[in-house]
Design goal:
By secondary structure, this protein is mainly α. Helices cover about 80% and strands about 0% of the residues. The protein starts with a helix and ends with a helix.
Length: about 300
C-alpha cells in the first residue's frame, strides 16, 4: 500500500511537470525567458519555506533534531550553489528553446537526461549495464526522428532543449551526491534561489522589464513556480521514500508523454507520423535503460 501511494505521488509529479510546458510556452507571450525564470525559481524557492518550517516543527516534536541541516552548513551551501548553477543553465536553455519548438517535443527531449546520465557515469568510472546502452541507442534514433528535418539539421529550439537535458543530467548527479549529505528540501530551496538570482541578473541586462507584462503573465508564473517547482518536487521527495528508484525513474519519465498530450489538448500542437514514432522510441528507451535497476530492485526485495 505504501509503495502504491508513492507511485501515485510520482505520477502526479510527472503530470505537473508535463503540463507545465504549456504554461512555460504561454509565458513567453508576455515576458522574456530569463525574467520568467527569475519568477519561476524565486517564487518556487519561497513556496518551499513553509514546507521546511513545518518539517522543522514536526522534527522538533519527534525529537529528531539530528536529522536536520542548518542553512549555514557549508556542504549545503556548496551543493546549492552548484545545483543552482546547473538548474539555471538547464532552465534557461529550456525556456529559450521552447520559444522555437513545441511543448510536446520539449518535454520528450528534456527527458533525455534519463539516458544521458549513464554516459556521464562512464567518466566517473562507474559500470553501465548493456541494457542501458541499448536504451541510449534507441533514444538517439528516436531523437533523430523527432528533431532532424529532411535537410539533416536540428531546429534551433530542439538543440537548445537538448542542451537543457545535458545540463539537467549534471544536476541529477549533483543532487544525487549532495542529497545524501544534507536536507534535500533545503537543498532544493537554495538551489532554486540561486537559479532565480542568476536568471534575474541576466534579465536586468538582456531583457526589457514591463510591469504590466509581468501582471499579464501572472497565471503561467504562478502555475510553474508553485506547482512545477514546489509541489511537484515535494511529491517527488515523498514518493521516492516509498518507491524503488528504478520504478520511480520510469514513472517520472512519463513527464514526456504528459507534455505531448497536454500540448495537443490545450495548445493544438500536432506531431507528424515520423515525430510520433520518435516519441514512442524515446519512451521505450527510457524503460529499457531502467531494466538493470528494476532487476536489482526485485532481487533486493526477494532477499
Amino acid at each position: 500500500m505504501r509503495s502504491f501511494k508513492g507511485e501515485i505521488y510520482l505520477m502526479l509529479a510527472a503530470l505537473i511537470w508535463g503540463s507545465a510546458f504549456i504554461f512555460q510556452k504561454m509565458g513567453m507571450d508576455y515576458i522574456g525567458p530569463f525574467l520568467f525564470g527569475f519568477f519561476r525559481f524565486t517564487l518556487g524557492a519561497l513556496a518551499l519555506l513553509p514546507v521546511i518550517w513545518i518539517s522543522g516543527k514536526v522534527n522538533d516534536r519527534k525529537q529528531k533534531k539530528e536529522e536536520t541541516t542548518s542553512f549555514r552548513d557549508k556542504t549545503l551551501l556548496a551543493g546549492a550553489l552548484l545545483c543552482g548553477l546547473a538548474n539555471f543553465i538547464a532552465g534557461s536553455l529550456q525556456q529559450v528553446g521552447i520559444v522555437y519548438t513545441t511543448a510536446g517535443k520539449a518535454g520528450f527531449i528534456t527527458s533525455m537526461d534519463i539516458v544521458i546520465v549513464p554516459i556521464l557515469l562512464i567518466f566517473l568510472k562507474k559500470k553501465v549495464a548493456p541494457a542501458t546502452w541499448l536504451g541510449v541507442a534507441i533514444a538517439c534514433f528516436g531523437l533523430y526522428l523527432l528533431c532532424i528535418t529532411e535537410g539533416f539539421t536540428i531546429q534551433l529550439g530542439d538543440g537548445l532543449v537538448m542542451g537543457c537535458a545535458v545540463a539537467y543530467s549534471f544536476q541529477i548527479l549533483l543532487i544525487d551526491h549532495y542529497s545524501e549529505r544534507v536536507d534535500p528540501v533545503k537543498l532544493s530551496c537554495l538551489q532554486f534561489l540561486w537559479a532565480g538570482i542568476l536568471s534575474g541578473a541576466v534579465a536586468l541586462f538582456a531583457e526589457t522589464i514591463d510591469p504590466q507584462a509581468i501582471i499579464d503573465c501572472a497565471v503561467p508564473i504562478i502555475y510553474v513556480a508553485i506547482l512545477e517547482v514546489s509541489v511537484a518536487f515535494t511529491l517527488q521527495v515523498v514518493g521516492q521514500k516509498y518507491t524503488p528508484p528504478a520504478i520511480a525513474a520510469i514513472i517520472m519519465s512519463l513527464e514526456a508523454l504528459f507534455s505531448a498530450v497536454c500540448g495537443a489538448l490545450f495548445l493544438g500542437e500536432t506531431l507528424s507520423t515520423k515525430e510520433t514514432l520518435g516519441c514512442g522510441l524515446m519512451l521505450l528507451a527510457f524503460i529499457v535503460a531502467q531494466i538493470p535497476e528494476m532487476k536489482r530492485g526485485k532481487t533486493e526485495l526477494e532477499d
